[in-house]
Amino acid sequence: MNKTELLKFQLEMGADESIGHTPVNRLLAAKKPVGSETVIEESRTATKAPTPSATAEPTMPATKKSSTPALSSNVSAAIAKAKELASAAKTLEELRAAVQSFDGLAIKKTATNTVFSDGNRHAPVMFIGEAPGANEDAEGIPFCGISGKLLDTMLGTIGITRAENAYITNTIFWRPPGNRRPTPEELMICRPFVEKHIALLNPKMLVLVGGTATAALLDDSVSVSRLRGKFHSYKTPFAENPYPVGVLFHPSYLLRSPLQKRLAWHDLQILRDRLEQDKVL
Ligand code: URA
Q1: Which amino acids bring their CB within 6 angstroms of ligand 1?
Q2: pTM of this structure
Q3: How confident is the model over 73-90, as pLDDT tens digits?
């Protein structure tokens, strides 16, 4: 059987996700010591150290639960500063200004704009993506490029628009150079801002768009493929009650893997049903 026949066979057998970037001979792997497994996901390339993105099979970044990397004093200081600024912000405008004034991340220096948010600040649903790309960096608006167009189309099918009922942000506010995935340290540094962002918007529901946001806020040990289609819960330290959380495939992943749109469609229906049930839509 050649590779194409093998792939076709797997699809016919109902395989609906890949579990690694490169093929693995499980029979050989079984003889090797354990420790090199890869958890898959989408959008950009997961990194411990920054790697260029776009084509590589995505992996979840290790952020909070599965690894506790020793932090350099610079990273610890940046996190402490972000916490201090986030705690002090009493409104979304103050938080935006705090993020804009923050200079604890090197990627801010290579970015053109701080990309804070878009959409309706009274929206019941808050969408959190990964990081600004080239278009977002140029415009200062999250999800304004090709993947943003697909996101808008997806949301439009269930009656959600930025003007009316969606508020959109990312897990980091500056474009990582070369469009690489954010590093765990960058995610940790921005995290207090994201946590406060959620509390200040106080949405009825959070939706994490893609593997990076899901790993950063929900669970970094399980792929989006496993978390999608259900609701979860997220508690920010800046708010008393947890928020219900839905998970969507990242639109840039769907652009590269159109077969997965079928599952994404299902996820959107589930989201709409829950929002209708909660009288949010
Ligand atoms: N991808 C994201 O995750 N966020 C953006 O703002 C743009 C592309």
Answers
A1: 129-133, 136, 142-143, 147-148, 170, 210
A2: 0.80
A3: 999 999 999 999 999 999
